[in-house]
Amino acid sequence: SQQGEEDPQALSIQEGENATMNCSYKTSINNLQWYRQNSGRGLVHLILIRSNEREKHSGRLRVTLDTSKKSSSLLITASRAADTASYFCATDQGDSWGKFQFGAGTQVVVTP
Amino acid sequence: ETGVTQSPTHLIKTRGQQVTLRCSSQSGHNTVSWYQQALGQGPQFIFQYYREEENGRGNFPPRFSGLQFPNYSSELNVNALELDDSALYLCASSAWTTEAFFGQGTRLTVV
After folding, report:
1. What is the pLDDT of residues B25-78, one digit of tens each?
2. What are the distances in angstroms from CA B71 to CA A86, B20, B54?
3. Which residues in B lie closer than 8 A to residue A98 (C-beta atoms)?
4. What is the DSSP letter of B25?
């Protein structure tokens, strides 16, 4: 069964708008990482947030983590056409560092 | 550029054949994990190698096997290929408890 589930499945926005996607998971985690994937190519690492952190920023990206609700959100501000991609959250638990469980991803389309 | 390279980029094999995929991990990384991503789905964990030893395996049959070499590069071998093995195969390298970086993947098509 999948640990991370992204929501929504798909998101269509215009350039300049913000995009928010959520990830829910089922069991306690050590860390949560967000990745971007363009057109079935490799995964690009965006942000790692550890279980004792609540929020992290990187450029136009903001990630929050709520361990009590077992959920995380990724916010992309001032989106650009180049942000068009699928976004995945990856979680690992216990001593299973790097043995990620992924959801099916959120497909984001940013139109000019 | 992540420093993680995979080869080949694309591969077409016939059902029943065997295939070897390769991954060069980023400098300083001692952990390599392999994933299978079917079209339209998220990656599924195959197995992980840490300091040349298998360190966990997902729900994949024994015909999926691997190796990690002293320089921490890795191979994924799949025997007796089936049509359902057609997928994007991704490797990720990391140092223990740091970010994991993925290669560009190998697109395997089994006909």
Report:
1. 988 889 999 999 999 899 999 999 999 999 999 999 999 999 999 999 999 999
2. 32, 18, 15
3. 31, 33, 48, 92, 94, 100
4. P
